[in-house]
């Protein structure tokens, strides 16, 4: 990750210093009328370790046959196939039988035992606290032992799934934070699919810019996963992640201007080609957590602490409305002596 300059302002200093050091906090109450259907499935991971640690061919073959029938393995294969990168069953079995994995079995078992204690309801409660009331939050979290070390969401429209790679370097508190973050994406996708504003009459460039502005949902999910504006987004993370986040948030004024130039280039048709838009837009996700996260979090936190959480939630399905709400909140804070960066009024007018 490139080195970023530090911009010291009263507002940013306050935003950083207000993040609590405590990692544990009470889960917020579920939103009125919300339905919670979130569960954890560890079957694939259990059987994968049984295959890896089997002492005879019969035990290994039996565990392997059971693993092939698990929902986790079946849905993983379905997802990989959709990306045209199928892992053959034989290659997966070879991975499970490798000496490398066998040596890791004790650590993986200990991690899996700890992760089984994950408070799924608390994580879901944090996500629901930042979602429109009355919706349903439905997902299955699959704990997976697999060749690729990535974690991801899948099949949001039909049967939302969250795949978590079992990683001994990740604590249960970190897993709960990641689960809350991903559940916010799942819930927001469901809520905004039904509540998205009609925009068929808008010019194509305006629609494209508005769609990209929804990527600030990453920052909102950071706020939700932490449990609120009083908790640092990386309270459960290693100190290095905590420090990186603080450095990057301090660069939010410059990053906001970079994203604004991107929006303007889209609106002016200087990035009319979808691939060109995607190259620039995806770069703001960053190598770890770029401006969609840091600027998005600063915006969401400023709106909540100034205008209230209800106002923040009311803007989540409309990216331009989120930018406008932030400008309103930031202007109030700046009038009191802070120095928060603002979106240009011209940009907000064009996005409307």
Provide an overview of this structure.
A 4-stranded mixed sheet has the order 1-2-4-3, sandwiched between helices. The chain has 17 helices and 4 strands. By secondary structure, it is an alpha/beta fold. Among the domains are: 10-24 and 200-351, no CATH class; 43-115, no CATH class. 59% of the residues lie in helices and 7% in strands. It has helices at 10-17, 43-52, 57-68, 71-82, 89-97, 99-115, 120-128, 172-195, 204-213, 217-226, 239-250, 252-267, 274-283, 291-307, 309-314, 319-335, 345-351; strands at 35-41, 136-144, 152-154, 161-165. Helix 2 (43-52) runs antiparallel to helix 3 and helix 12 (252-267) crosses helix 14. Strand 3 and strand 4 (161-165) form a beta hairpin. The model is unreliable at 1-32 (pLDDT under 50).
